[in-house]
């Protein structure tokens, strides 16, 4: 069944004893546990790293080891024999692709060769499509005013090239219409890790197009700059959902019509790679302790059973002696 409070109560009693408070103790008892949940029709397995406001921070059991928040009532606790093999306490190789996000926060520099396209032409799009396979490049269109037709042509070339992993569209004026084409890029094969859309005249409508796509897929985007656009308080809930879905994503929102208090509401779901590693190691330690306590309980139960067996044997012998005397 779903891992709601009713479902967690037996677990909390079993592991934490009768003295644990219901609610908080039950949620904390999820940490370190192996769970599964349905994600758009696909069953995913994960390890719980932390719990926060009815959400569980989970590390997915897949090659990318994505970290995200999932509603607790969507989780099913796995039995020991069905739990995934995440017993190692080695730090996870978190999916950052080729972009070193932690370093970028301080340096602001790209770690990929830059491919500038000052004017969008058929020849330049052809060159873009023909970039060597395996190449990872940053495409800069900064300050180039892009019409809908030009932008669509360029996005088609990006999709075909399979080489561009960073996009700089600062001050290109793509607006809400351009977000439709950005949507196609983030829904592609997972190469795009960074998108700069500051000063692009994007409103709440364009954000919804982009955010809906990011929430619908498991995206590789780790840096999304939406600064100095026309976003308002109406988008706070959607932005919080986006940050919750991708807690390690750098979501930059400076100089929009969003208050500092609303920014804090969004940023409370943000996590650094260091924080995630610490939570992972803490969850390993909690699960190890849980297993040790379980082993101790089983040993104690076996000892008690043996003692009861030894006490019953003399009583059986005495009973047999009495029966023998009565027969004689």
Automatic annotation (TrEMBL):
Record's InterPro entries? Leu-rich_rpt (IPR001611), LRR_dom_sf (IPR032675)
Compositional bias (Acidic residues): 15-29, 310-319
User: Region annotation Disordered: residue ranges?
Assistant: 1-30, 290-328
Q: Pfam families this protein is in?
A: LRR_6
Bias (Basic and acidic residues) occurs at 290-309
Q: Under what name is this protein listed?
A: Uncharacterized protein
- Which species is listed as the source? Guillardia theta
């Amino acid at each position: 069944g779903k891992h709601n409070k009713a479902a967690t109560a037996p677990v909390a009693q079993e592991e934490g004893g009768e003295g644990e408070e219901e609610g908080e103790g039950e949620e904390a008892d999820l940490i370190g546990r192996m769970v599964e949940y349905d994600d758009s029709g696909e069953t995913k397995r994960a390890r719980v790293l932390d719990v926060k406001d009815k959400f569980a921070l989970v590390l997915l059991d897949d090659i990318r080891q994505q970290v995200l928040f999932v509603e607790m009532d969507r989780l099913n606790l796995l039995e020991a024999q069905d739990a995934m093999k995440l017993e190692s306490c080695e730090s996870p190789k978190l999916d950052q692709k080729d972009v070193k996000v932690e370093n970028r926060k301080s340096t602001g520099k790209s770690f990929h060769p830059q491919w500038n396209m000052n004017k969008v032409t058929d020849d330049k799009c052809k060159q873009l499509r023909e970039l060597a396979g395996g190449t990872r490049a940053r495409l800069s269109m900064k300050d180039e005013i892009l019409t809908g037709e030009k932008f669509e042509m360029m996005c088609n070339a990006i999709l075909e090239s399979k080489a561009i992993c960073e996009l700089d569209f600062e001050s290109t004026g793509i607006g809400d219409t351009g977000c439709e084409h950005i949507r196609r890029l983030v829904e592609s094969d997972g190469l795009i890790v960074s998108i700069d859309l500051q000063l692009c005249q994007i409103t709440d409508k364009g954000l919804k197009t982009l955010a809906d796509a990011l929430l619908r897929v498991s995206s590789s985007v780790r840096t999304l700059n939406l600064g100095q656009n026309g976003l308002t308080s109406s988008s706070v809930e959607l932005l919080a959902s986006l940050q919750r879905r991708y807690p390690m994503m750098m979501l930059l929102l400076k100089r929009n019509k969003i208050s500092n208090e609303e920014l804090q509401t969004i940023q409370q779901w943000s996590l650094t790679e260091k924080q995630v590693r610490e939570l992972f190691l803490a969850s390993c330690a909690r699960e190890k302790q849980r297993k040790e306590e379980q082993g101790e309980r089983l040993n104690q139960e076996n000892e008690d059973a043996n003692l009861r067996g030894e006490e019953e044997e003399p009583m059986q012998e005495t009973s047999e002696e009495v029966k023998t005397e009565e027969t004689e």
